[in-house]
Write a structure and sequence with these properties.
The chain crosses the membrane at residues 12-31. The chain is an alpha+beta fold. It has helices spanning 13-30, 39-64, 87-90, 123-132; strands spanning 68-73, 76-82, 102-110, 116-121, 141-143, 152-158, 161-167, 174-175. The strands form two sheets. A four-stranded antiparallel β-sheet has the order 3-2-1-5, with helices on both faces. Strands 4-6-7-8 form a four-stranded antiparallel β-sheet.
């Protein structure tokens, strides 16, 4: 008796190689569009986060009736608030002869090490504001209890890309 062999259903090596080549070509077309984190996206995300945090500080200063000062040191963005000895000190008007005491809050933002930050604020106005508020530390931004703040711009650079976070001193902080 002879046993008959049944033909096996399988793909040949050549067919498998052709399918893999087609899949590889399709993947090479799609891969650049699904990159994990492009420079543009990370720069936009950092600008949006910084804009949101500064806008929140400006609004909180106005709503709480308390001036806030922002300092930037070693990539840490820190908020300083007045310790309320009396109402005039908390508002930053310093109508008494006492100096305002300032308390440093925890850092509210940490700079991305891959992004360069260049900030611009009118130095003369900043020095006058810090002096009037009896603030002796180094600071870059002042948000007053009245809702106003010193105009500023922060230029964020990553590679050849850049975005600017600007505040005109009265209206919303925006990205340009």
């Amino acid at each position: 008796m002879r046993l008959l062999k049944k033909p096996q259903a399988a793909f040949t090596l050549l067919e498998l190689l052709v399918v893999l080549a087609i899949l590889g070509a399709m993947l090479s077309l799609v891969a650049p569009n699904i990159s994990i984190d492009s420079d543009e996206e990370s720069l936009e995300r950092e600008a949006q986060t910084l804009r949101f945090e500064l806008q929140k500080i400006a609004e909180n200063a106005w709503l709480s009736g308390s001036t806030s000062i922002i300092s930037l040191s070693n990539g840490q963005w820190t908020q300083w608030i007045p310790v309320e000895a009396n109402r005039s000190d908390a508002l930053g008007t310093n109508s008494s002869d006492e100096t305002v005491k300032w308390m440093q809050e925890d850092a509210f933002h940490e700079s991305d090490v891959n992004i360069r930050y260049d900030y611009d604020v009118e130095l003369k106005a900043l020095k006058q504001a810090l002096s009037a508020l009896s603030f002796s530390n180094n600071a870059q931004f002042v948000f007053l209890a009245s809702g106003e703040y010193l105009p500023f711009s922060i230029l964020l650079h990553k590679g050849e890309l850049s975005l600017t976070v600007t505040g005109d001193g009265i209206n919303a902080i925006e990205i340009r």
